[in-house]
Amino acid sequence: MGQRIRWPRVLTPTYLSQIIKTQKNPLKALNIFNEAKSRYPNYYHNGPVYATMISILGTSGRLNEMRDVIEQMKEDSCECKDSVFVSVIKTYANAGLVDEAISLYKSIPRFNCVNWTESFNTMLQIMVKENRLEIAHRLFVESSCGWEVRSLVRALNLLMYALCQKSRSDLALQLFQEMDYQSCYPNRDSYAILMKGLCQDRRLHEATHLLYSMFWRISQKGNGEDIVVYRTLLDALCDAGKFEEAEEILGKILRKGLKAPKRCHSRLDLDQLSDGKDIESAKRMIHEALIKGSVPSLASYNAMAVDLYSEGKIDEADKVIIEMQVRGFKPTHSIFEAKVAALCKVSKVDEAIKVIEEDMVKVNCLPTAKVYNILLKNLCNVGNSTAILESLNKMSSKVGCTGDRDTYSILLEMLCGERRYLEASQLLEKMSIKSYWPCTNSYNSLIRGLCSIGRQYEAVMWLEDMISQGKLPEISVWNSLASLFCNSEKIKVSSETFSRLRSL
């Protein structure tokens, strides 16, 4: 039997949100949501309570019911936030229903929503990821003139990124040059995306002119974060064997871009590398000149280290950390996050764990949930369930927080796949406390597995839990339970359990 709802004398949307959030069964939550209007004739749902109901249905995979609630929200014409549509668009995309996501986005003008900038950017991001650039362009053209989309810079950056990924940096450059006509001001990301695209396509002449435009548009105060964009061009010039040009441009960067003191303007001696045999050495010399030539700042060290780690240049990035500490700067969380990701990418998981447990603590930079989640995601990718369990426990005890829903769900599937059903059952207990309900397939796998090792009590407990959420077990689950109940040695216990099942 479900828990009775204690309805208040006067119902508010906030109180209703709290009630439906406590329901394990999304359909029960929906019934309560719908019942509220009939019980209280003067009550009206508002945007936040609609958002809560839509989120519950979307998270549990009840897409048909979610569509009905969205339609109801439109008919009620209550004010709703952009974030509701962002959530639903992502839910549709994750379910492979991209066309439905597009349809919802195009219908937003029929809702009482005054600003849908994030929905626009989310939709473009999905189109770029799905490689549907024509639709992305059409959506941009249709949405760029209205006042509901407040900023186009991020959208233009996304389109430039997509074009550069297609080796069409020439078109990305045209888009960049048209930013002024769109009343947009390019930011650092705009320059970084386009610079990388032009250099990958060997358009070094255009890349050099882009650098000069950067000097007078965003680098007038010598911002250290610009160092990453400068490095992209200088590395490309070295790869093309244009060492003299790289030296010349480095001098201009130090003077005009980084506003470096005159003592740092001395020229590099790259003559011995002009035969092109040691391009990487030339790059390292240039990187050191950029770091030492810039006005020392946390921003410049942070940008350079994160960028090097993202490219897998771990040793070189480590030197940047040493240099910044010598200059009196402490490595940031973002640097350690980038290092952990880089180490995991090359399967150096033990070293990544050492970074979290030793290196971060040494510099008084306490590990965060984010850095643990980066580690956990990578451990999930390599299928190391034992290391994931250990990291989750350390995360809980040292950081005071837990992994996200996806990490727990992946780990549960892995434990079932490895036939470690008791550990999977214990993990699901922790998930239940956090309201991280698994999918139907995970429940089926776990219950069948518990039956196979004779764990009758746990199997029925999770069956009850599954049904309480409105999820239906497969026939194979019932067959497994039936086989277990027919075991003559456990017939007494089985009859007691069967009585419990009859009450479900």
The helix/strand class is: mainly alpha
Helices, by number, come to 27
The geometry reads as globular
Q: What does the largest sheet look like?
A: none
Number of strands: 0
Uncertain parts: none
Q: Strand portion, in percent? A: under 5%
What is the overall pLDDT average? 85
Q: What sequence of helices (H) and strands (E) makes up the elements?
A: HHHHHHHHHHHHHHHHHHHHHHHHHHH
Structure write-up:
- Residues 278-418 form the PROP1-like PPR domain.
- Keywords: Repeat.
- Belongs to the PPR family. P subfamily.
- PPR repeats lie at residues 46-80, 152-186, 226-260, 297-331, 404-438, 439-473.
- It comes from Glycine max (Soybean).
- The protein has 504 residues and is an all-alpha fold.
- It has a domain at 431-503.
- 69% of the residues lie in helices and 0% in strands.
- It has helices at residues 13-21, 26-39, 47-59, 63-76, 82-94, 98-107, 117-129, 133-143, 153-165, 169-177, 188-200, 204-217, 227-239, 243-257, 279-293, 298-310, 314-326, 333-345, 349-362, 369-382, 385-399, 405-417, 421-433, 440-452, 456-468, 475-485, 491-502.
- Helix 9 (153-165) packs parallel to helix 11, helix 10 packs antiparallel against helix 11 (188-200) and helix 22 (405-417) packs antiparallel against helix 23 (421-433).
- The protein is globular and about 85 Å long.
- The N and C termini lie close together (8 Å).
- The mean pLDDT is 85.
